[in-house]
Amino acid sequence: MSEQGYQSPATPDRRLSTPEPQRAGSCKTPIQILYEHGVVSGDPPVFVMEKAEGEAHQPSFVFSVMIGGVKCTGAESS
Question: Annotated region Disordered: where (predicted)?
Answer without folding.
Answer: 1-26
